[in-house]
Design goal:
By secondary structure, the chain is an alpha/beta fold. It has 12 helices and 9 strands. Strand 2, helix 2 and strand 3 form a beta-alpha-beta unit. The protein is globular. It starts with 6 loop residues before the first strand and ends with a helix.
Length: 315
């Protein structure tokens, strides 16, 4: 069992002033009061840093530390990995946060409760479903439900939780901190949350997906990635296959994960190697080999899409 402890909230920031105060207020409303916040700012030109300065002053009186550091300026994924790489030794929990959502009050509590059942020696990652909302926080729509279990075979081809819902236990923090530096040395992954799912599951850790919504995931014109639900999302996924974007992301993820291959189990290290080599083979070998790997996405349509992508050499 992993006991209670202080949560380190890590936030990536870039011109997020419009909705930042809502996000910060939702931290204060958490039923878990023991947290600190580190924000990595990728060169904001708006009032975000000033909002954080006022927030830091108010939270100091509550015994919470709020730090603003300069980000690497290389995009949101590298920004989050740089935050993970700099987490102090002995950090009990790490929660990731976007700059424009709203956490429901039990967001941290649900994650801690789920991970407290995991052995302290086992790296563990929690992620949850979300309420997808409009810019004014109206129009609640549930994110997709996933019925197949989390695993490395799923993680290689799909991310199943947004980073804005994720929580790592202490062993997971230690793993992510070491691997983040390695991934950054080769340019980083396509997305930090997908990479965390791959890393923890690949290292033999436990990944817990909670189908209860813990955040309001705000949709607006500046989102790096939007909702993964509905016909529009399905069309977008097909476009990603044909454009080659999906294949580029998979290659980038494999390269970042490969930098930490020694941290994976022997079985998963071999699986990553087979998957990476399969992508360069001719069509018959790709199709047959892909079936043999047992990789899967959540949902029948998603499975058809990646099988199609593998046949086209776009995975």
């Amino acid at each position: 069992m992993t006991g209670p402890g202080r949560v380190a909230i890590l936030m990536g920031l870039c011109n997020g002033a419009a909705h930042l105060q809502d996000q910060l207020d939702s931290f204060v409303a958490q039923t878990v009061p023991d947290w600190d916040l580190t924000v990595s700012d990728d060169g904001s030109g708006d009032d975000g840093p000033a909002i954080l300065a006022r927030f830091a002053e108010a939270q100091e009186a509550e015994g919470r530390m709020v730090r603003l550091v300069a980000g690497p300026g290389q995009g949101f994924s590298v920004n989050f990995l740089s935050l993970l790489a700099s987490v102090p030794d002995g950090t009990d929990w790490v929660a990731l946060s976007d700059q424009d959502d709203v956490w429901l009050p039990d967001r941290l509590h649900r994650g801690q409760r789920a991970l407290c059942g995991v052995s302290p020696e086992t790296p563990a990652l929690y992620g949850s479903a979300s309420w997808i909302v409009d810019e004014d926080l109206t129009g609640h729509r549930a994110s997709p439900l996933f019925h197949r279990p989390p695993s490395f075979r799923n993680a290689l081809v799909q991310s199943i939780a947004g980073g804005n819902t994720m929580l790592l236990n202490r062993s997971g923090v230690d793993l992510a901190r070491a691997a983040a530096a390695e991934a950054l040395s080769v340019g980083g992954p396509a997305t930090h949350d997908w990479w965390l799912y791959q890393l923890v599951s690949g290292a033999g850790g436990q990944v817990i997906r909670d189908e209860t919504q813990t955040i309001l995931y705000r949709q607006h014109g500046q989102n790096q990635y939007g909702s993964n639900r509905g016909l529009g999302a399905a069309v977008s996924r097909l476009r990603q296959v044909f454009s080659g974007d999906l294949g580029a992301w998979v290659a980038q993820n494999n390269r970042a994960l490969g930098a930490s291959a020694h941290r994976l189990t022997a079985e998963n290290r071999a699986l990553l190697d087979r998957f990476s080599r399969l992508r360069t083979q001719h069509i018959v070998a790709r199709v047959q080999g892909f079936r043999g790997l047992g990789l899967y996405r959540q949902g029948r349509a998603g499975q058809v899409a990646i099988s199609f992508a593998a046949a086209l050499g776009r995975l």
